[in-house]
Amino acid sequence: MSNFGKGCHLHLIDGSAFIFRAYHALPPLTRKSDGLPIGAVSGFCNMLQRYVDGDHGPDAPTHLAVIFDKGSHTFRNDLYDLYKANREAMPEDLRPQIPLTRQATEAFNIPCKELEGYEADDIIATLAHQARDAGGRVTIVSSDKDLMQLVGDGVEMFDAMKNKRIDRDGVFEKFGVFPDRVVDVQALAGDSVDNVPGAPGIGVKTAALLINEFGSLEELLDRAEEIKQPKRRQTLIDMRAQIELSKRLVALDANTPLDFTLDDLELRDPDPDTLLGFLAEMEFRTLTKRIADKLGAEAPVIAEKASPEAEEAPQPEQPPFDASKYECVRDAAALEKWIAQARERGWVAVDTETTGLNEMTADLVGISLAVEPGAACYIPLTHRDGDAGDLFGSDKLAEGQMPLQEALDLLKPVLEDPAILKIGQNMKYDAKIFARYGVAVSPIDDTMLLSYAMHGGLHGHGMDTLSERYLSHTPIPIKPLLGSGKSAITFDKVPIDEATAYAAEDADITLRLWQLFKPQLHRAQVTTVYETLERPLVPVLAEMEMHGVKVDREVLSRMSNAFAQKMAGLEAEIHELAGETFNVGSPAQVGEILFDKMSLEGGKKGKTGKYSTPADVLEDLATEHELPARILDWRQLSKLKSTYTDALQTHINPDTGRVHTSYSITGANTGRLASTDPNLQNIPVRTEEGRRIREAFVAEPGNVLLSLDYSQIELRILAHIADIPALKQAFADGLDIHAMTASEMFDVPLAEMTPEIRRRAKAINFGVIYGISGFGLARNLRIPRAEAQEFIDRYFERFPGIRTYMDDTIAFAKEHGYVQTLFGRRIHTPEINAKGPHAGFARRAAINAPIQGTAADVIRRAMVRMPDAIRDLPAKMLLQVHDELLFEVAEDAVEDTIAAARDIMEGAADPAVRLDVRLVVDAGRGANWAEAH
DNA sequence: GACATCACG
DNA sequence: GACGTACGTGATGTCC
């Protein structure tokens, strides 16, 4: 027998709406004692408290509940697998706060309701119907338009943001129809936020017009032939199924199976101890006091200082590593159990095993998963029987493996599920492998990137390093499994039991590292860096790398031959001049010829006791002697041939005809990317002969290469960071910055500037960025040290902000052990307090890192935003070379692409950082990279 | 595998 | 007063 009836007023709070509003309305607060993010929880509690204690007049609640979503998979996903598929992953600092909002609700003694497989909206619909049918009234606290279909007959909504009630007329204002036809309008108009398709080209306005004309969606679809506009008529006829599906998606289910009744939701007072205990635990000082006053209870004491125990976040007991506990998954039933575990938790560590290190050519051999420390498995897929001596048997799949496709079909929904976080170590690798098998892994977390964000500059971020350092565990080495040299085998030949121990352990380690690192991200104050500069770069780089750049083998091959001929001629000449034959490629032999045999000056021996013969030494000798000049010529050609025209050809992928570099996100301490296999960030450009190698980098027919590069980005950033008015003004006026510096330093009017004076100023400008020293500048400019020092002194005199910046930066590094970029990236400087020459290196690196690092952050931000900006253009981003982005674009879209990409690049710092100096991007285009640059 | 050298920003 | 010194990378060839 229910007590709920006439005179009762049920208030239903949409919990998710409260959480998101609280999250976005407040800065990212953290709990003082341990850095736990609690901003959203704080806002949520405040909103809840204000709502409960607020004056609702005649609409005061007699019954109250907060309704939450549960799980990501609902019956709507079964209807339409793309439902809510484009929803962005939950911000990482919000995720841990979700369970806390449930706890908060319970602490307030408010019923907290959720139901697996249903959205909060369905529960709200069910309760609203029940309450209305019982003769009571209902207030739904939300402004979500999806709930508007419920309004009417005593059911109203309340927009807590605008403090406004929404009734039937309010719904009509929004939709142009009354609540009973809202789903019809939504079915037609669709919803981009939830990915409800609707009818293309029809929005809310048109939809309302049609529904009002025909009376209902069903009527409209049945009589679609009568519509006058031909395009609209055709859409409705063609898209009927999609529209009907959309209606099923937007219609709320008012018959959810609830295990409680309206009576359970009766308003009740909170228990002071429970509520105050929770608030104190969250360390909400103001709110705790306010509520304690209201309840007439004493506010519990909240420690002011972070407790030392809390600083050293106690790690829960970890099971030891035990390879025998890892499961080898050999059939679908076993795999499904692991998948269920991943779904239950909302996360899973993933690692792939393949036949090689090149993601473009390596084949998938197996997959390992981990869900908890110690709970890991390996799924062998394409291991081969490696029976020695049996040439035919070696290609046969080993027994006891599930079919590759079956495993992928089972895993794909998990790997692509926006509600399940996929954790990996260097996920770009695994994501690229999976991409080749049609699986788009998302969302991801990456322990390598977590470490980079938190420990950049302290140590490497490979799994072995991290495992040893943070888990005190040495991973099973791969070497004994694969062997080395000629007898090395690929992973598919490794026996499955050995592979299981190795592979599952990798996933286990990754999961443990993630559980250790993830909560520390906030305490290290690098969450934003990780979330905006590291993690989102993974899919962007993966796409660039997979797309590759077209390289014309013919061009390289011709150049190789030409170089070989020239080198042969030079070599003969060199031997002639030396009076003997020797290996020109051996610096040791060159040194002996020059400094012993010919007794030339300037022979310095390195630590190996051999002469050093770098280019600058040979250049000095070359003014007087023929031999060193020819050796330099030979070396240049040798470099170009071996590193570029020869090696580059071997990197052309036979399937794509393109070269696919790999970018290392964590390779450089400053935040720069590094390019390997091959390195496409050091293709020659400074000499004419070298630059011609860029002619081999070409666009597909009908396309051009487009290069956009930041002009003087590091000097602009220096002007901003060190706050140099003269430099800022020069950039604002669009002056030649080196000429301006020269004019300022040497008192030469711009009109009388000579190339030599400008060259010196340029060297000083760069020297400043590198942590200038008199010695270094002297060597660079080939001038006496005293003179170089004079220049530097004058520079500091004219631009005193530079000195201050350098001193402040070093002081900061000494105090904190790191320096940071304008975007908050931290670069640790462990050697800064060292004694001896180490300290000098560390000081200069510390001065350089914020400048180089900020520039690196800027282009990272541009790259992360670029795919969206050029989405609708026939353009692809191919390469990044520190301050340059290279695109391949259809000829007729060049101007549009320049406009869009330049916009992103020049505005890349905004809105996180307001630079005093604007960023300028130059553009070039051509049939090849030489022309475009 | 260390070292020297040199390609780039 | 001496010590050493421009910042950040990766690939190649020699030599042990």
From TrEMBL:
Q: What is its EC number?
A: 2.7.7.7
Q: Does the record bear Zinc-finger in its keywords? A: no
Among SMART domains, the record links this protein to:
35EXOc (SM00474), 53EXOc (SM00475), HhH2 (SM00279), POLAc (SM00482)
What is this enzyme's catalytic activity, as reactions? DNA(n) + a 2'-deoxyribonucleoside 5'-triphosphate = DNA(n+1) + diphosphate
Keyword Nucleotidyltransferase listed? The answer is: yes
| Cited Gene3D superfamilies | 3.30.70.370, 5' to 3' exonuclease, C-terminal subdomain (1.10.150.20), 5'-nuclease (3.40.50.1010), Ribonuclease H-like superfamily/Ribonuclease H (3.30.420.10), Taq DNA Polymerase, Chain T, domain 4 (1.20.1060.10)
Limits of the DNA-directed DNA polymerase family A palm domain: 690-893
* Superkingdom of source: Bacteria
Keywords assigned by UniProt? DNA damage, DNA repair, DNA replication, DNA-binding, DNA-directed DNA polymerase, Exonuclease, Hydrolase, Nuclease, Nucleotidyltransferase, Transferase
Q: What class of enzyme is it?
A: transferase
User: Where in this chain does the record put each 3'-5' exonuclease domain?
Assistant: 326-522
Domain (5'-3' exonuclease) ranges: 5-268
Q: Which GO terms describe its molecular function?
A: DNA-directed DNA polymerase activity
Please give the function described in this protein's UniProt entry. In addition to polymerase activity, this DNA polymerase exhibits 3'-5' and 5'-3' exonuclease activity.
Q: How does it assemble?
A: Single-chain monomer with multiple functions.
Which family is it part of?
Belongs to the DNA polymerase type-A family.
Under what name is this protein listed? DNA polymerase I
What organism, scientifically named, is this protein from? Answer: Ruegeria alba
The uppermost taxa in this organism's lineage are: Bacteria, Pseudomonadati, Pseudomonadota, Alphaproteobacteria, Rhodobacterales
